[in-house]
Amino acid sequence: MAPKKPKRTNKPSPLDRMHEAFALLNNDGDTMISKEEFRKGLATVGVTPDVADQLFKRFDPDGSGQLDKEEFFAYAAKGTGEMRRLIRNGLLEADEGVDAVLEAFRAWDVDGDGRIDPTELERVLVLLNPSFTKTDMTKMMKAIDKNKDGSIDYEEFTDWIADKKPMKK
Ligand SMILES: [Ca+2]
Ligand SMILES: [Ca+2]
Ligand SMILES: [Ca+2]
């Protein structure tokens, strides 16, 4: 078998992504993701604890309260499902008076400049859908970034969450 020439590309493979996500979530550096670590990690991208618990349950069939690497990779391969639905589910649970859309936006906008750039979106994707591809990300960016300036502003974000059809100009 001739060894394949390594591709000169800087894009991480899905497996790299999974390891990256695992490391991001695994605060105490042991071999498992605890429910607490999972909740905390997902909270940084605007996912409410209740929604995080539901997800956790789905990938922890033995109910041990810990995701081992195998269970975690099952999560990573499937992802969280539709991200918009995930944020919306959180919205339904939000307390009155809390603007959950704004909270989610702030969670995604790490540097707080009022726009979500591709790097910030990538961080969200690594945690919520680790097996995503560059194409997935480009598609998502395109779908949300209506004025095509390369980043997502608050208005574009709320429109996307609300799934408003783009208005014909
Ligand atoms: Ca851990
Ligand atoms: Ca930003
Ligand atoms: Ca934009």
Describe this structure in words.
This is EF-hand domain-containing protein. InterPro entries: Centrin_CML-like (IPR050145), EF-hand-dom_pair (IPR011992), EF_Hand_1_Ca_BS (IPR018247), EF_hand_dom (IPR002048). This protein has a two-stranded antiparallel ribbon. It contains nine helices and four strands; from the N terminus they run H-E-H-H-E-H-H-H-E-H-H-E-H. 55% of the residues lie in helices and 5% in strands. The chain is globular and about 45 Å long. The chain is mostly helical and 169 residues long. It has one domain: Recoverin, domain 1 (Orthogonal Bundle), CATH 1.10.238. It starts with 13 loop residues before the first helix and ends in a 7-residue tail after the last helix. The mean pLDDT is 87. The site of one calcium ion has 7 residues, from strand 4.
Question: What's the arrangement of secondary structure elements?
Answer:
Blueprint: H1 14-25, E1 33-34, H2 35-43, H3 49-59, E2 66-67, H4 69-78, H5 83-93, H6 100-108, E3 115-116, H7 118-128, H8 134-144, E4 152-153, H9 154-162
Antiparallel strand pairs: 1-2, 3-4
Helix pairs in contact: 1-4, 2-3
The chain binds calcium ion (CA) (3 copies).
Organism: Polarella glacialis
Protein name: EF-hand domain-containing protein
InterPro entries: Centrin_CML-like, EF-hand-dom_pair, EF_Hand_1_Ca_BS, EF_hand_dom
